Amino acid sequence: MKKLWLCLFLPLLATPAVAKKRTPQATCETQFTIVREDALKNLTQGLSRKQAEWYEKKIQKKYPDVCYVDPAPDVPLVFFISETIAVYHGTQIMKTRSRSETTFNADTDVTGDVNADADTTGTATTTTTHSTPVRYSFDYRLFILTAETKEAPVAGKGVTASREGASTR
After folding, report:
1. Residue 66, by phi and psi: left (phi above 0), alpha (psi -120 to 50) or beta?
2. pLDDT given at position 100
3. Spatial separation of the C-alpha atoms in residues 55 and 142, rounded to whole Å
């Protein structure tokens, strides 16, 4: 799961609007950091050592102009990942089958008269299927990714833009 969120947002950084054309000696042009809020509202800033090593090994080579930096007030791009617990409620159709067998003596003829000399027996099998809706629910984790960018200061104030809109700090 840790690798999944990195794979989701890094291709966005490589778009022409964000990343400039790479040269063989590309330098870090876009810096980002990560803040994560778990389901209990605990905040974790930055990557763990293991996550940072994975990022440097797998992602940094592909996108050398995009760099992870430790959280600081001047980082221009912050990925905020929030986790909540959601509950799925659904219905499942349960099918049950019942089977019954009946043994009988066929001692009547075609006209319905009893034939005392007949010694024929048989078995009739009946299968019945019932469909019953059964309610069920389960918990799952829902991750929401918000990208927040810091734009150029306007009249001495820092402006922060996010997916919800712009707000002045």
Report:
1. beta
2. 77
3. 23
